[in-house]
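Quick one, tokens below:
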């Protein structure tokens, strides 16, 4: 990078906010989609909104493409740098700015780790509901950009339902202050548009979110099944019968084995074909009514045992197994491709089976751990990216699973976004007029299209409008 530009940026962020050294730039080459890599020209870590404004202004004047980055836990290549581009990360913007108990909202810097927000409001009896399984690492800003979900989003909805305001630095380096909490915004809902825009509209530096009263009681039930099909059918029936759990999560046999062999061992029985984690919340009476009703459904689906966690420690252990499952899969192979699709809940069993068939045809190791209540499947393919043939088979299987899901009335993504991974599959789900409108909206936020170019919107559809092509598979 041109030395005078680096000097000007250093004057804004200082040495702590600038990563120039080539070796120190390596960790920024990719996110969780590890086979897509590109080293950034430079990494900037502004310490606050003012510094971010200064950096973005300079990058605008120089016409340099930008990729925003939170913790890099994304699974679709959203935070993967683009050729010749600079990464602007939020790792030094992690403060909780306000907890407003009376009006039930919090303001935080975008780099705050999701779990730290829940911890910060716990003493006030409040909670921030969206809880991605990566919540001990991912940032609120990354959650906003990807409209992230999590186990409890079954009851509470994904991030978009909880964001009340944003402070955004535009690609031109101007401040767009929409941080005042608004439930029903006047005029066009710019905050709503920004949520889920995958880093293409600007850099969020502050986020205002809704807080909810923490439930009076929380109970976790571990249901053990002899067969994955039964677990899937039990979930469909729990919902059809209008019971009201806050989370319904399934782990299959291979996942259970990986978890139990790891430091996340939760006491899931290794001989089970599937376990279903059920969370129930509310008053004592609500918990009991839900537990009794759900137990009857489980019995109809051949449950071997349904065990209520007896202590808070036991409950936390059950969840640690679920939330550590991806880490545990490192025991199966060095790399993991986490697919993310949504199917109608009545078709859970059918699509889980179909993914299993597809993966076995390609000779791949498949594990399933998913937000069953939302119909949000995660067929996880373990592989070794040094084996190019295996990687090709992983991608081909991923495409076939997607085709099967769309044919069954499902959607492209439940929570991980599109990024690089599913960019070229967008036309499978959206028509050309849909994509044209998205493109026009994108251009309205970022005329030069320097923010995260080459992501989300398929290149062929966007060719005429895009000065930067970004990465190509
Ligand atoms: C083990 C594991 C479990 C996971 N479980 C879940 C889950 O249960 N639910 C779920 O939804 N996801 C899950 N994920 C995916 C991932 O954690 C989420 O997508 C998360 O929101 C990404 O946050 P991040 O801070 O790491 O963002 P990054 O990966 O750094 O970035 C993600 C996207 O957001 C953009 N971005 C980041 N910060 C900003 C900002 N301040 N302003 C504008 N754009 C920005 C980036 O450009 C990129 O496009 C999981 C990932 C892992 C590794």
């Amino acid at each position: 990078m041109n030395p005078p530009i680096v000097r000007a940026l250093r004057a804004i962020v200082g040495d702590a906010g600038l990563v120039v050294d080539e070796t120190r730039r390596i960790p920024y080459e990719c996110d969780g989609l590890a086979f897509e890599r590109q080293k950034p020209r430079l990494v900037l870590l502004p310490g606050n909104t003012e510094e971010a404004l200064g950096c973005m202004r300079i990058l605008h004047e120089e016409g340099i493409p930008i990729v925003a980055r939170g913790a890099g836990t994304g699974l679709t290549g959203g935070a993967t740098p683009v050729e010749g581009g600079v990464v602007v990360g939020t790792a030094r913007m992690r403060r909780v700015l306000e907890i407003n108990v009376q009006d039930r909202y919090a303001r935080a810097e975008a780099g705050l780790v999701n779990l730290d927000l829940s911890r910060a409001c716990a003493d006030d009896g409040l909670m921030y509901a969206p809880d991605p399984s990566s919540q001990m690492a991912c940032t609120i800003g990354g959650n906003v950009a990807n409209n992230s979900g999590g186990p409890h989003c079954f009851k509470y909805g994904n991030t978009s339902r909880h964001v009340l305001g944003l402070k955004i630095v535009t690609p031109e380096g101007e401040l767009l202050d929409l941080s005042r909490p608004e439930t029903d915004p006047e005029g066009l809902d710019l905050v709503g548009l920004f949520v889920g825009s995958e880093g293409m509209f600007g850099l969020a530096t502050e986020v205002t979110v809704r807080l909810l009263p923490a439930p009076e009681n929380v109970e976790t039930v571990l249901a053990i099944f002899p067969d994955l099909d039964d677990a899937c059918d039990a979930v469909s029936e729990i919902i059809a019968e209008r019971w009201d759990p806050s989370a319904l999560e399934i782990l299959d046999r291979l996942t259970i084995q990986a978890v139990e062999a790891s430091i996340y061992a939760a006491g899931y029985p290794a001989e089970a074909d599937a376990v279903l984690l059920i969370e129930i919340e509310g008053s004592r009476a609500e918990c009991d009514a839900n537990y009794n009703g759900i137990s009857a459904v489980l019995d109809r689906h051949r449950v071997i045992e349904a065990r209520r966690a007896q202590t808070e420690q036991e409950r936390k252990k059950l969840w640690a197994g679920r939330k550590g499952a991806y880490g545990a899969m490192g025991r199966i192979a060095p790399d993991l491709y986490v697919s993310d699709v949504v199917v109608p809940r009545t078709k859970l069993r059918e699509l889980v089976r179909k993914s299993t068939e597809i993966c076995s045809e390609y000779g791949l190791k498949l594990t399933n751990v998913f937000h069953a209540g939302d119909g949000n499947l995660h067929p996880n393919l373990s592989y070794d990216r040094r084996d190019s043939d295996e990687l090709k088979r992983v991608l081909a299987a991923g495409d076939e699973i997607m085709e099967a899901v769309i044919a069954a009335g499902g959607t492209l993504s439940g929570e991980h976004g599109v990024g690089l991974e599913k960019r070229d599959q967008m036309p499978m789900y959206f028509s050309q007029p849909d994509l044209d409108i998205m493109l026009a909206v994108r251009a309205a936020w970022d005329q030069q299209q320097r923010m995260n170019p080459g992501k989300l919107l398929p290149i062929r559809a966007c060719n005429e409008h895009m000065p930067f092509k970004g990465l190509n598979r």
